[in-house]
Task: structure prediction
Amino acid sequence: MPEPTEIELERSRRVLRVIFDNGERFELPCAYLRTHSPSAEVRGHGLSEPKLLTGKDEVNISAIAPVGRYAIQLIFDDGHDSGIYSWSFLYDLGKNMAANLARYRQRLEEAGME
Result:
């Protein structure tokens, strides 16, 4: 599994740029990272679909903390800080961003929120 060689927050653009050792690079919007957090708050405990979060379009990352040599903890300016983003999870979010966002928008529409 690829590992990041660079992680940079572009706070003004609300984007986390992650470059992996296989050369792939992703620009992950903070709102995307927040709504797709690996935390139990979002993922639930055994839920088939993550909790549908709304109102996170303007969220930003206020801090990034290393977690061992395998992950980072993202602290968001809305107070959310319980998600641990492993390298494989970040890579998966980057590779599947288009499909993940399409599914998120579909779920918003189905809930009458889009």
